[in-house]
Design a protein that fits this description.
The complex is a heterodimer of chains A (362) and B (327).
Chain A lengths: L2 H10 L4 H5 L7 E2 L5 E2 L6 H26 L14 H10 L6 E3 L4 H6 L4 H8 L23 E4 L6 H14 L6 E6 L6 H12 L4 E7 L2 E2 L2 E2 H4 L16 E5 L3 H16 L5 E6 L17 H11 L1 H11 L5 H23 L19
Parallel strand pairs in A: 3-4, 3-5, 5-6, 6-10, 9-10
Antiparallel strand pairs in A: 1-2, 7-8
Helix pairs in contact in A: 1-10, 3-4, 3-12, 3-13, 4-10, 6-13, 7-8
Chain B lengths: L1 E4 H15 L3 E5 L15 H5 L4 E3 L4 H13 L3 E5 L10 H9 L1 H4 L9 E5 L15 H5 L5 E3 L4 H13 L4 E5 L7 E4 L12 E4 L4 E5 L3 H13 L5 E5 L2 E3 L3 H11 L2 E5 L7 H12 L9 E4 L9 H7 L3 H11 L5
Parallel strand pairs in B: 2-3, 2-4, 4-5, 5-7, 6-7, 10-11, 10-13, 13-14
Antiparallel strand pairs in B: 1-8, 6-12, 9-11
C-alpha cells in the first residue's frame, strides 16, 4: 500500500467516506467482473477488507454479549459494538511491528491484531487455551508476539505504560511507533497528563488515540471534561491533536497514517480524538439510562460504520447487496465455529492457580 | 574486599549492571545532573549519558508507569523514587501493573523492573517523609521486596534485583547510606529470598531488616553481657520470606522477637509471628513478641520521633522478659 503517498494527500484534508461517496459515478471504471471500478483513493478490495474486518468485530462482540447473557461469561465485559471503525482503521494504518496497548474494552483490538477469535472467547470462558490461560478475562488480554500489550483494567494506567513502550522503542533506536488507546473518561486521569508531558518532552514515538464514545461509563463528556474538544487536551504539552470522524474507517485510517508518520519521523507524539459511539452500555451490567433509545437509534441509522461502508460498496456497484449478505453469513459461521472451538477447550487447570506469579512458574 | 559506603555500593551495583547489560537504565527525579537527591547516582550520567540516566519531571505515577511499559518491551529499568513516601503516587503502577501483569497475561509478559529509593524514617522529616512501606509491598504477590542492611548486601542484592526477571521493590534507608562495610571485589551477587544469621546465639532469636538490624545487633551485644546469647537474623528479603531460616532458628532458641520500624498492625512482624506460631508452636517457650514503631504518624520533634521508633533498650527489655530473667 502506498502509505506515504496517501499521507501526503491526506495531510491537508482528511477524506472521509462521505466525500468518497459523493464522487460522481463517472469516476468508476468497469471491473472485470462487470462491476464498477471505484476510484476511492482506496482500491475496492480494500474497502471490502475494511467492511469484512469491521463486521467480524461486530458479530464477534454480539455473540460474546449473548454468551454473557447466557451466563457463560462472568465478571465485567465491555463490548466494542459501534466503535469498529476505530480499531479497523487504525490497524490498517499501523505496521504489524508497531506495539498497541489499550484499556479494558480490548477484545476487538486483540482480534484486529490477528489473534484468533477462539482464543479471545476461550479466555472469556475461563479456558486453559484462552489468551491468558483463563487468568485475565475480558479486561486483561495480551499477545506480545503480535505486539499487543493489553488489555488493562485501571482507567488511564495504560497511558504511561504505552509511553514506556514508546520510550523503549526510542531507546532501542527503532522506527516503530506505539499506538496507545484511551477513552474519553481516561483523559482526565492525572497520570495521562503526566505521560503526555514526558512523551512530548522526550519526543517519544507514540500516537495517543482517544476513543471518544461520548460517555465515560454514564457520564457524558461535557459533564466530565472542562474542554469537550478532547483532541486539545495535549495542546499545553505541544502535542498536536486532530479530531476525526471515528465512525468512518477511511477517515480513521488516513488520520492514523498521518499521525504515525509524524511520530515515526521523530517529531514526537500526536493525539487523535476519534468521535465514535458505543451502542451497548459501558459494560454488560449497564442499562444505559443516561441516554435515550432514540439517541442510540439515530447514531445506528445515520453513522453506523459498517452500514456506511456497505452502502457505499453497493451504491458504487462494487458488490451486490446479496454478496454482502453472503459475507455476513460467512462471518457468522466463523464466529460460531470460534465459539464451538472455545467451548470445547479444557477448563483452566486448578494446578495453574499458583503459576505465573513469578518467573520460573510460581 | 574493600571498604565502601552503602551509597557507593548501590551506585556500583547500578554502574556494573549498566556496563554489563545495555538494556539496564536508571530513571527518576534528580538522578542525572543532580546525581541523586541523596547522591546515590554519582558519576552515572557522566559515564552512561542522558539516554540511560534519565532525569524525569516530578511525576511519580507517570514515570513509574513508563518504567513498567519499558520493562514490557524487555528493557531493565531501575526506577528511583526520591523516597518511598512519594511512591504512594505511583503505587497503582507498582501493584496493578508491575505486580499483576505476568499473572494476568498467563505468563506471556515479564516485567524486569526495579523500584528503589530510601524507605522509613530519616531525621525529623515528619509524617509524610518517614513511613516504612515494607509491609505494604510485601503483601503483594508478584512483587519481590528487598531491604538490605549493610554495604555488601546493598550491592549484592541490588545486582540480583536488576538481573531478576520479576518486579523488585528495593527499600533502602537514608540513615544507612553513609555506613561503610566490606564489599567483595568484582562481581557480587546475593540471592534474593535468603535471610542471614548475622550473629549466632542459643537463647532468643532477634529478627529485623534494613536499619533495624543495627538495633538488634546492639541489643545482642548488651544481652551478651547479661549472659543471654541472642541469635541475630537479617531478613534481607521481605518477600519471599525465608521462613525456613526463621523456623530453624526458633527451634534452637525457642523464643523470637521481631523488630520493625513500621507500624505493627498487619506488619512484617505479624507475618513472622504468625508463621512461627503456626509452624513451630511446640518449640516456643515464651510468647513471640514484636518491638515496633508507635502507631502514630511520625512526629517532627526529635525526642518525640525517638519515642516513636523501636530502640535498643526496649529490645533488651523484651528479650529479658521472654527469657524470664526478670521474673
Amino acid at each position: 500500500m502506498a502509505a506515504s503517498k496517501r499521507v501526503e494527500e491526506g495531510a491537508g484534508e482528511l477524506s472521509p467516506l462521505a466525500s468518497l461517496a459523493a464522487r460522481p459515478a463517472a469516476a468508476y471504471e468497469p471491473m472485470p467482473n462487470g462491476h464498477e471500478q471505484v476510484d476511492l483513493g482506496l482500491p475496492p478490495g480494500e474497502l471490502l477488507d475494511i467492511h469484512r474486518r469491521m463486521l467480524l468485530l461486530r458479530r464477534l462482540e454480539e455473540r460474546i454479549g449473548q454468551l454473557y447473557a447466557m451466563g457463560e461469561i462472568g465478571g465485567f465485559c465491555h463490548l466494542y459494538i459501534g466503535q469498529e471503525a476505530v480499531a479497523v482503521g487504525m490497524e490498517r494504518a499501523t505496521r504489524s511491528d508497531d506495539p498497541v496497548i489499550t484499556a479494558y474494552r480490548c477484545h476487538a483490538h486483540m482480534v484486529v491484531r490477528g489473534v484468533a477469535p477462539e482464543l479471545v472467547i476461550g479466555e472469556l470462558l475461563g479456558k486453559a487455551e484462552g489468551v491468558s490461560g483463563g487468568k485475565g478475562g475480558s479486561m486483561h488480554m495480551f499477545d506480545p508476539a503480535r505486539n499487543f500489550y493489553g488489555g488493562h483494567g485501571i482507567v488511564g494506567a495504560q497511558v504511561p505504560l504505552g509511553t514506556g513502550i514508546a520510550f523503549a522503542l526510542k531507546y532501542r533506536k527503532t522506527d516503530r511507533v506505539c499506538v496507545t488507546y484511551l477513552g474519553d473518561g481516561a483523559i482526565s486521569q492525572g497520570q495521562v497528563a503526566e505521560a503526555f508531558n514526558m512523551a512530548a518532552l522526550w519526543k517519544l514515538p507514540i500516537v495517543y488515540v482517544v476513543e471518544n464514545n461520548q460517555y465515560g461509563m454514564g457520564t457524558a463528556v461535557d459533564r466530565a471534561s472542562a474542554v469537550s474538544a478532547l483532541h486539545k487536551r495535549g495542546e499545553s504539552f505541544g502535542i498536536p491533536g486532530q479530531e476525526v470522524d471515528g465512525m468512518d474507517p477511511v477517515a480513521v485510517e488516513w488520520a492514523g497514517l498521518t499521525a504515525l508518520e509524524h511520530a515515526r519521523s521523530g517529531r514526537g507524539p500526536m493525539l487523535l480524538e476519534m468521535k465514535t459511539y458505543r451502542y451497548r452500555g459501558h459494560s454488560m451490567s449497564d442499562p444505559a439510562l443516561y441516554r435515550t433509545r432514540e439517541e442510540v437509534q439515530k447514531v445506528r441509522e445515520e453513522r453506523d460504520p459498517i452500514s456506511r461502508v456497505a452502502e457505499l460498496l453497493v451504491n458504487a456497484g462494487v458488490v451486490e447487496a446479496d454478496q454482502l449478505k453472503a459475507v455476513d453469513r460467512e462471518i457468522r459461521a466463523t464466529v460460531m465455529e470460534a465459539v464451538t472451538a472455545a467451548q470445547t477447550m479444557p477448563d483452566a487447570d486448578p494446578a495453574e492457580l499458583m503459576t505465573d506469579i513469578y518467573s520460573g512458574g510460581s | 574486599m574493600r571498604e565502601i559506603s552503602v551509597r557507593e555500593a548501590i551506585r556500583d551495583a547500578m554502574a556494573e549492571e549498566m556496563r554489563r547489560d545495555e538494556s539496564v537504565f536508571l530513571m527518576g527525579e534528580e538522578v542525572a545532573e543532580y546525581e541523586g537527591a541523596y547522591k546515590v547516582s554519582q558519576g552515572l550520567l557522566q559515564e552512561f549519558g542522558p539516554e540511560r540516566v534519565v532525569d524525569t519531571p516530578i511525576t511519580e505515577a507517570g514515570f513509574a508507569g513508563v518504567g513498567v511499559g519499558a520493562a514490557m518491551m524487555g528493557l531493565r529499568p531501575i526506577v528511583e523514587f526520591m523516597t518511598w513516601n512519594f511512591a504512594m503516587q505511583a503505587i497503582d503502577q507498582i501493584v496493578n501493573s508491575a505486580a499483576k501483569t505476568r499473572y494476568m497475561s498467563g505468563g506471556r509478559l515479564s516485567l524486569p523492573v526495579v523500584f528503589r529509593g530510601p524507605n522509613g524514617a530519616a531525621s525529623q522529616v515528619a509524617a509524610q517523609h518517614s513511613q516504612d512501606y515494607g509491609a505494604w509491598y510485601a503483601h503483594v504477590p508478584g512483587l519481590k521486596v528487598v531491604a538490605p542492611f549493610d554495604a555488601a548486601d546493598a550491592k549484592g542484592l541490588l545486582t540480583a534485583a536488576i538481573r531478576d526477571p520479576d518486579p523488585v521493590v528495593f527499600l533502602e534507608h537514608e540513615l544507612l547510606y553513609g555506613d561503610t562495610g566490606q564489599v567483595p571485589d568484582g562481581e557480587h551477587v546475593a540471592e534474593l529470598g535468603r535471610a542471614r544469621i548475622v550473629r549466632p546465639g542459643r537463647d532468643v532469636t532477634l529478627v529485623s531488616w534494613s536499619r533495624g538490624v543495627s538495633a538488634i545487633l546492639a541489643a545482642a551485644e548488651t544481652l551478651a553481657g547479661q549472659d543471654i546469647e541472642a541469635e541475630v537474623i537479617d531478613l534481607r528479603t521481605l518477600r519471599p520470606l525465608d521462613r525456613a531460616t526463621l523456623l530453624s532458628s526458633v527451634q534452637r532458641t525457642n523464643r523470637i522477637i521481631c523488630v520493625e520500624e513500621g507500624w505493627p498492625s498487619c506488619g512484617i512482624g505479624a507475618e513472622v509471628i504468625a508463621t512461627v506460631s503456626a509452624e513451630v508452636f511446640d518449640a516456643l517457650d515464651a510468647p513471640p513478641r514484636r518491638v515496633s514503631g508507635a502507631e502514630v504518624p511520625m512526629p517532627y520533634a526529635a525526642h518525640l520521633e525517638a519515642l516513636a521508633l523501636p530502640d535498643v533498650e526496649t529490645v533488651v527489655r523484651v528479650a529479658r522478659e521472654v527469657c524470664y530473667v526478670d521474673v
